[in-house]
Every structure is written in C-alpha cells, then in structure tokens.
UniProtKB/TrEMBL annotation:
The keyword Transmembrane helix applies. Pfam families: DUF1295 (PF06966). The keyword Ligase does not apply. It comes from the Bacteria. Keywords: Membrane, Transmembrane, Transmembrane helix. Gene3D superfamilies: 1.20.120.1630. One of its GO terms (cellular component) is membrane. This is DUF1295 domain-containing protein. PANTHER family: 3-OXO-5-ALPHA-STEROID 4-DEHYDROGENASE, STEROID 5-ALPHA REDUCTASE C-TERMINAL DOMAIN-CONTAINING PROTEIN. InterPro entries: UstE-like. The chain crosses the membrane at residues 12-31, 38-57, 69-88, 109-130, 142-160, 215-234.
Amino acid sequence: MNQIDGTALAHTLIGAAAAIVVTLGITCVVAKRIGRHNVIDVAWGLMFCGAAVAAFVGSSGHGDDLRRWLLLVLTVAWGLRLAIHIGVRSRGHGEDPRYAKLLEGKGELGIILIVYVLQGGIAFFVALPVMVGSLTHGSVGVLAYAGVLLWVVGIAFEAIGDRQLAAYKADPDRGPVMDRGLWGWTRHPNYFGDACVWVGLFLVAAEHWPGVLTILSPALMVYLLAFGSGKRVLERHMAERPGYRAYMDRTSGFFPLPPRR
C-alpha cells in the first residue's frame, strides 16, 4: 500500500489554505471598492487555481510527476476559464439579485461568513483530491485517463453551453427561454460540466491510495450543483420568467437527456 509523506501533506494543505485565504482577502477588498459581492463568483475559480499551484509546489519531490502535472494543468485551466468568463460576463453590471436577496439585512460579519468564509471552506474541501492526488505514488493508468476524458467532457459542456447562451442573449429575435443546443438537453449544461470536471479530477487522484479517500469532495460538489445552492437557487429566480416552468417540464434538470414532448 502506498503511503504519502505526512509532513509534505501538512505543508500542501497549509499552502492551499493560505492561497485560498489570500484570494478571498483580495476579493473582499475589491468587493467593497466596487460595491458588489458577486465578484466572489470570479474568485471561485481562482481559489482552485491557487490551491492547485500550492499542491504542485508542496508535492515537489513526492508523488508521481505526471499526476502532479495533470492535476495542476487541468485545475488551473478550468479555474482560469471560469474566472475569465464570469468576469467578462459581469463587467458593467451591478450586484447579482440573488446575492442582494441572500445578504439582505445581514451585517458586515454575516456577509463575510456567508460569502467568503463559507465559500472558502467549500473550495478547500472540494480541492482535496488535487492536494492528496499530487502526493500520491503509483503511475498514471486507465482510471486517471478516464478522469481526464471526463474532464474534457465537462469543460466542453461548460464552454459550449456558455457560448450558446451568449449567442442567445445577443439574438434580438430570441424567445423568452434559452432552449437551444445543449440547453435543450439539460437546463444546466455548465453545472453538469462542473460536476464532470470534479469527478474527473477525483478519478485522476483516486487511482492509488489514499486518493480514493477524497471521494466526499466531488460528492459535495455534485450535490451543491445538482440539488443545493447552484441549481435550486438559480431556478427559484428563473421560475419567475414567462415560459420557464414549461421549459422545466420538458427539459432534464441536470443530466443531459433528450427533450420530452
């Protein structure tokens, strides 16, 4: 049974936590300056980038080098793409109505706890496969390559879904609800893509012990996306739009399926 170095693991975890805290600190300062806390959505992807870099540095001299590079490149590519997309999309807009409603009546401490501390803790927990996997010994094999393939599927769903949604918004003759392309098969192609990405990263880490122990990390991410704050909160807001409830009746809520008649 392969073992990982306890000291290296401690350094990696501390380094990743520090990277996330620094990212959150900068984000909080920016949010106060521009007057909107939805900037945390840009920082979401950047927190994982910081954790992945810290894991790569902390695992130097430990673990399999190919796995270390895979986890670094795949995580940073996903995180940067997401941060850039959300940053461009939100530029020039005010506070997200969902954040305004969530934070209504909350004091400064409540806002910090809900927006920054909670999301930072979730990011650290979800990123555990990247940290542990970077220190895991044993060569890269079939399971890891399956994880890479699932990551590709996930990033494709995110990128294609985002592009299709942007084209819909730019169309002056668009209908009341986006139901074209991937959006006709799942109401949330970007959330489904996120889930594939993080299950894929887990598979890369889980090929050798003790990476498999981080299974609760992708489980949490999938739960939040499919049943928790992701899909549930967004659809509560979107349900007010004309035609959206009919769209919900004919379109899968998460896993892509042919549209129902």
